């Protein structure tokens, strides 16, 4: 197993170190190669996705990523900003299927801002298309009109084949779960998503056991808070999925709990927490490493088809939570507040 490890910026290096610790404790035959990305890439090679980092990621079987971004890079030209490194590696590796599971660990029911009865038992899989939509559509940019006024343009765009392949991912995942797919769109206003809905309906015919429903994105945002347990698999485009997955994460107590997998057509994947680089708490050893540790479990499951070790990591996380270990973001009275590295140790001990 060749794994490219890209810690990135902010809390990235701290949380990735914990995931690496957990992986190493499994004693698997793994080769881990570290490389810079994001602001770290810019510092090292003047590029948020240095050529050597991309080459390493292409050769590897899987990529484990921390997070990118820091306010100090906000004034750089857009192409040099850390986020562009992340978007480029997703596109270069053709990682079109982003899986973001929002799962509530029973111990954390009281850490959520929602009532425990609303969230307990929650288990949603958000399937977000990751290489298309307004994130990548052309034309884009800021230009000056004839009257001297500036205008900003982005283009929401999806081809039929892009929609079709993410639909197949969502339906296949639903087949292994509760066989329900809710497709999120804005078909009442946006033609791009009207096509999205049509293609979802076509693909659904190949999965007669799966129940397909449709929801406008504004309603989906509301329903996620009102009655989140109505959802099994949610499938949506890049921008809606970006927003709804952050929202769903708060149902689980903290965005620090949400892992993700970004897969290509052959299950090669990049695994990263759904949260950002949190530069405000970087280098203090207080971030929650569980989303990254759980992303490493997803890596074993999806890229290496190693269910048993994926289960081992997930069970160790459950055990550490059951033992009362909590980082600051999920801390509630009566629990034991630990640092990022101590949480990593607790998971290793639980293994
Ligand atoms: C995410 C992040 C990224 C995105 C940013 C950092 C470019 O918010 O992975 O959800 O918008 O996709
Ligand atoms: Mg996001």
Plain-language structure description:
The chain has helices spanning 12-25, 39-45, 51-59, 82-92, 116-119, 160-175, 191-204, 217-226, 238-251, 290-302, 307-322, 340-350; strands at residues 2-8, 31-34, 62-67, 97-103, 123-129, 141-144, 150-153, 180-185, 211-216, 233-236, 261-263, 269-271, 325-326, 336-337. It has 351 residues and is an alpha/beta fold. The protein has a 10-stranded mixed β-sheet, sandwiched between helices. Strand 1, helix 1 and strand 2 (31-34) form a beta-alpha-beta unit. The longest helix has 16 residues, at 160-175. It is globular and about 60 Å long. Bound molecules: 3-isopropylmalic acid and magnesium ion.
């Amino acid at each position: 197993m060749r794994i490219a490890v890209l810690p990135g910026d902010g809390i990235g290096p701290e949380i990735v170190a914990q995931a690496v610790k957990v992986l190493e404790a499994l004693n698997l035959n793994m080769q881990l190669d570290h490389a810079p990305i994001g602001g770290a890439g810019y510092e090292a090679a003047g590029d948020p996705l240095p050529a050597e980092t991309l080459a390493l990621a292409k050769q590897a079987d899987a990529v484990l990523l921390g997070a990118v971004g820091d306010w100090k890079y906000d004034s750089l030209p857009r192409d040099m900003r850390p986020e562009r490194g992340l978007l480029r590696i997703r596109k270069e590796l053709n990682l079109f299927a982003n899986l973001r599971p929002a799962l509530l660990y029973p111990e954390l029911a009281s850490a959520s801002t929602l009532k425990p009865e609303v969230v307990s038992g929650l288990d949603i899989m958000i399937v977000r298309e990751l290489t298309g939509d307004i994130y990548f559509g052309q034309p884009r940019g800021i230009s000056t009109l004839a009257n001297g006024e500036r205008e900003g343009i982005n283009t929401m765009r999806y081809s039929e084949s892009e929609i079709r392949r993410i639909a197949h991912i969502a339906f296949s995942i639903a087949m292994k779960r509760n066989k329900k797919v809710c497709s999120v769109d804005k078909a009442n206003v946006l033609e791009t998503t009207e096509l999205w809905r049509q293609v979802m309906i076509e693909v659904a015919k190949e999965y007669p056991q799966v129940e397909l429903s449709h929801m406008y994105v504004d309603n989906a945002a509301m329903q996620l808070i009102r009655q989140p347990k109505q959802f099994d698999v949610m499938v949506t485009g890049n921008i809606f999925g970006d927003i709804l997955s952050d929202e769903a994460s708060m149902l689980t107590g903290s965005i620090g709990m949400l892992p993700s997998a970004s897969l290509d057509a052959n299950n090669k994947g990049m695994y990263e927490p759904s949260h950002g680089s949190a530069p405000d708490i970087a280098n203090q050893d207080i971030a929650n490493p569980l989303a990254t540790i759980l992303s490493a479990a997803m890596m074993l499951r999806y890229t290496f088809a190693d269910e048993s070790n994926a289960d081992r990591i997930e069970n160790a996380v459950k055990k550490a939570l059951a033992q009362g270990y909590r980082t600051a973001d999920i801390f509630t009275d009566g629990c034991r507040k630990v640092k990022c590295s101590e949480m990593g140790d607790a998971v290793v001990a639980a293994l």
